[in-house]
Each structure stands twice: as C-alpha cells, then as structure tokens.
Amino acid sequence: MMEAFVLIIVKPGNEERVYQALEGHHQVKEIYKVYGEYDIIVRVEVGNIKELDDFHDKVLRKIREVEMTETLIASSYTVKG
Known about the structure:
Elements: E1 2-10, H1 15-22, E2 28-33, E3 40-46, H2 49-58, E4 66-73
Antiparallel strand pairs: 1-3, 1-4, 2-3
C-alpha cells in the first residue's frame, strides 16, 4: 500500500466544488481545506504507482476547477521517540 499527499491549488472560489468532487472516491482517505499557497490537501492510499497515476488521470485531471497539483509520496521513514 502506498500513501501520498496531494497539494491542490484551486481556481478562486471553487474550493467547495473540488472538495465535493474528491469526497467519496475510495482512494481518498482525508481532505483538508488549508490556508497558504495551496487550498486543499488530500491524503490518498493506493496499491501502487500505477493506481496513483490512474487517480491523477481519471480523478484529479477531470476536475476543471483544479489549477495545479503537487504530489508527495510518503516514505516508510518513522521517528522513534
């Protein structure tokens, strides 16, 4: 299983539309509206890189209100305290 975080810049005033378009997809585990350079952060779980490619192509790129994305793939690195 792979976990990725997708940082999304949305066309102004369309944050709710993008939020609604993303919720309900089985790969989407969490969605946050955030302040700063990005408007929305999505935590995605997929089985492999091909599934992540499919998520980008079949879900994200179909949402017209999305201007730009940046995807961060989580590593297995953990901090021991």
